[in-house]
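Quick one, tokens below:
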């Protein structure tokens, strides 16, 4: 950086006499210092406020999206339009081909089961979709019926439409294996964290702790200008509780997702094997995607909150060194 030249008119009778003073260049400032200086001149934000503003709104979006995904997952199979959001689907195999094995001491059982599980196409139960809170049945000729209790539907079905009692098996899976309590806990924890996050965004401090100027203090105390979270509210009051809550939400949602995935896959394998391939099915891909994406968003929120805490500590350390 070149030296600055200042021209000063000398005192005296002759106005043509001038004195040239060479001013040494000021030391170069870091990029962070220049940004902080510009932000202070505006009188609205500081560098840490800008960082908090960015992260808090991104974290708010992540948490809200995770809550929406988990809520949609719990609503799966409540109505016919949501029958695709199933944890497990079961249906009769239209062309079963059981293969005898040396491990089967009674190979004739598969043939008897095959003869039993071949109802006519006109009366056959098309498919069953199982969700967390309800079950959907695809009844002949082409209609979906859904609800938490399909007992009335079972009574009205023809005797040969569900020879292997798949509706009963699906209900046993839903009530005995698929448990949605962990998902509700994850939603509650994320909701509390999001509420704290909102309080952090809307926090208006009584005074600017980082500025000793009377002007800044008068702006904060008057309340005429809403400020984003400063050092004390976000870093000390909200960030750490949010980090703990989102960490628990991620842990609970991860356990719920892996339990949901493994339980559905294991149930499908057992039903297929015990019916000698006369029943087929699948693990609900859409429901699994909702569970895993929600857990992933919770993890990103945890890492983002941790990054906010660490960046706040780094800025505090820089301020301490610069003051020393």
């Amino acid at each position: 950086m070149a030296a600055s030249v200042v021209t000063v008119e000398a005192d005296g009778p002759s106005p043509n006499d001038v004195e040239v003073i060479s001013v040494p260049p000021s030391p170069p400032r870091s990029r962070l210092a220049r940004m902080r200086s510009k932000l202070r001149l505006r009188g609205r934000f500081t560098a840490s406020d800008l960082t908090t503003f960015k992260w808090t709104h991104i974290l708010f979006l992540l948490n809200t999206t995770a809550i929406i995904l988990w809520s949609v997952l719990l609503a799966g199979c409540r109505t016919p339009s949501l029958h695709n959001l199933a944890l497990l689907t079961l249906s009769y195999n239209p062309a079963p081909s059981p293969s005898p094995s040396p491990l089967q001491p009674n190979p004739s059982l598969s043939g008897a089961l095959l003869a039993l599980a071949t109802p006519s196409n006109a009366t056959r139960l098309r498919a069953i979709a199982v969700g967390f809170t309800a079950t959907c049945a695809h009844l002949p000729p082409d209609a979906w019926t859904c609800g938490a209790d399909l007992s009335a539907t079972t009574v009205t079905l023809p005797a040969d439409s569900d020879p292997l009692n798949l509706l009963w098996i699906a209900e046993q899976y839903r009530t005995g294996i698929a448990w949605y309590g962990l998902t509700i806990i994850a939603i509650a924890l994320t909701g509390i964290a999001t509420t704290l996050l909102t309080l952090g965004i809307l926090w208006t401090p009584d005074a600017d702790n980082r500025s000793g100027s009377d002007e800044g203090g008068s702006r904060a105390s008057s309340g005429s200008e809403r400020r984003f979270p400063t050092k004390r509210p976000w870093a000390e009051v909200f960030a750490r509780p949010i980090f703990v809550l989102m960490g628990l939400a991620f842990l609970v949602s991860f356990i719920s997702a892996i339990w949901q995935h493994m339980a559905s896959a294991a149930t499908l394998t057992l039903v297929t094997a015990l019916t000698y391939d006369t029943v087929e099915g699948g693990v609900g891909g859409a429901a699994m995607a909702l569970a895993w994406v929600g857990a992933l968003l919770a993890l990103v929120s945890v890492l983002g909150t941790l990054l906010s805490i660490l960046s706040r500590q780094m800025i505090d350390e820089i301020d301490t060194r610069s003051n020393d």
